[in-house]
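Quick note —
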Amino acid sequence: MSTNCRRDVKSPSEAVEPGGIEEFGQSIGYLLGAISNILSTGGSRFYRHHFGIGLSEWRLMWVLGIDPAITARRASEIMGLDKAAVSRAVAGLEHRGLLQATPDPADNRQRLIALSPSGSDLYRRMIVVSRERQHRLLAPLSDEEQRVLAALLRRLHAHVASGELFDPPSVLVKTEPDAVRTRD
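Predicted structure written out below.
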């Protein structure tokens, strides 16, 4: 099985019309986005209600539970969030005494962030819940399917993170100025 297969891109004349044959369940982008939105909404509500922590703050704590002393910039890269969102999460956790920041000896312009002792205690409680949520999410899949899914998602993540997204300018449909109608 080839790991580098390419699919033919439809020409503009083969494009699917709105309401056409493509179903929501066939669009990988839609499925990934919808699953992410459902998990994020439920997770945010759950973590805020039970732990007083927002989802971005929890994700930052999760990253720091794995990599205990990193810069906010590195956390931003790992999490796939913009620096401003990570900065807000850092400020919120620091304000609550769940995170400590110290100057980075390698670069005094940066700060190393790490969980405080109370942040580590909260992390240990929350990670149990997080793992149970993941267990329930993956329950319909066999162990082998879970391994395959994880491997495929890691490949997609690496591809997206590399910045080499497919930009299909050749399939953009050009319209004549008079073909574009506006409502009066």
